[in-house]
Predict the structure of Guanine deaminase.
Amino acid sequence: PRRVYVGAFAHCKSLEELDICDAGAIGVGESGRIEFIERDVDDISSVLEKQGWKGVKVVKIKDHGFFFPGFIDTHIHAPQYPNAGIFGKTTLIDWLDKYTFPMEASFSSLARARQVYNRIVNRTLSHGTTTAAYYATVHVPATNLLADICHAKHQRAFIGRVCMDTMSPPNYRDTSPEDAVAATRATIQHITSLDPSHSLLIPIITPRFAPSCTPACLSALGRLHKETNLPIQTHIAENHAELDLVRRTFPSHPSYTAVYDDHGLLGPRTVLAHAVHLSPAEVALIRARGAKVSHCPASNTALTSGAAKVRELLLEDITIGLGTDVSGGYSPSVLVAARHAVMVSRHVAMGSGEGEGDAAKLTEAEVLWLATRGGARALGLEERVGGFEVGMEWDAQMVVLGEGVGVDGEGGEAEGPVDVFGWESWEERIAKWLYNGDDRNTAAVWVKGELVHKTQAFSG
Ligand code: GUN
Ligand code: FE
């Protein structure tokens, strides 16, 4: 049904500019799209009358809350969720061997997959993630189950069946490039049967990363992309040992980025996670191909991979979104990833040459842009989600800072970790949410107009 969302809202206008409206009304039609946006609203009934929306239900926010676009997680490994927080002192390659491959291999069990995938989808929704780009495992039944669960819970999701025919344990890999492609096709077919127009569920071609794919496997996936024009996700330039591995396994290629490019895997629909250690030539190639980057700051710190130079990439006009990279990253929350993006940018600032420091720092507005608009652009969804504009889909979260909210203003108390005293500006409230907020502040979440999560702070 139609709904009108009344109260404060905020979204990112540009990388630098957070647009905040303290008395808005957003009308969402039956299609789940935004049909009108009114600002400076003091009398909602006259707005409803003017729009011809009299009698339509109003979802109202009280004093210290606001509507915000749903978060977009451009990089998350659903089967690694049980390992969130478990990484010790490992770095990428031994982390993969010690924790990641054994956990992922266990998804040959559908019971295991059901248990974990239900939890991670619930958990990301509760943190306001309305779109997630998931890596699953090599297992087709478990990958299809992840799609089923996202479909049932109405999360917008990219579902990637992981392809790898070398490096991982023999019991956890593709037996041939043909096997990788056939298995990927099987999941594409299943996802398409659930959502024929790919309006919420999108298959994504997923070579794990260059070292775990033979050249024949990379080429076969490049051809699959050419045939289907489906998006691609993979990892790039995360840590030094990985760079060495790529140099050894692909000695004739000029760079890591060139490996993907030479196999038909680098294009405008490619999302490259990490991008920590890229040469200027690689940055230029990524830019020339229009490929996108997923910045995973929590993971890059936890696995001591390095600090991605986000400002430099932004200045090169490369599109960047945020990734939680569970479980390289310990938290499934994009708000936490945004917070880490700020902190990592401070480390880049402290480590850079004289006079360059401040330029590296990301602002609150910028990391929130990465978490919403940037992610949407990285995944090719910028016309549909990531902000509040007429014609865009209502993928949104109701953020509450201290007060009860709900339909027609009814609702319980929100007990979040953010203390608002009442004198803060909206920018200050949003900064307090960014640094101290958690899922208790996310009272309700919608995807394409449909309520997909709520706490007791929200009624209706
Ligand atoms: N590189 C290859 N596989 C992975 C993975 O699962 N996580 C991370 N962070 N990097 C990878
Ligand atoms: Fe990853």
About this structure: Residues 177-194 form the longest helix (18 residues). DSSP finds 15 helices and 20 strands in the chain.
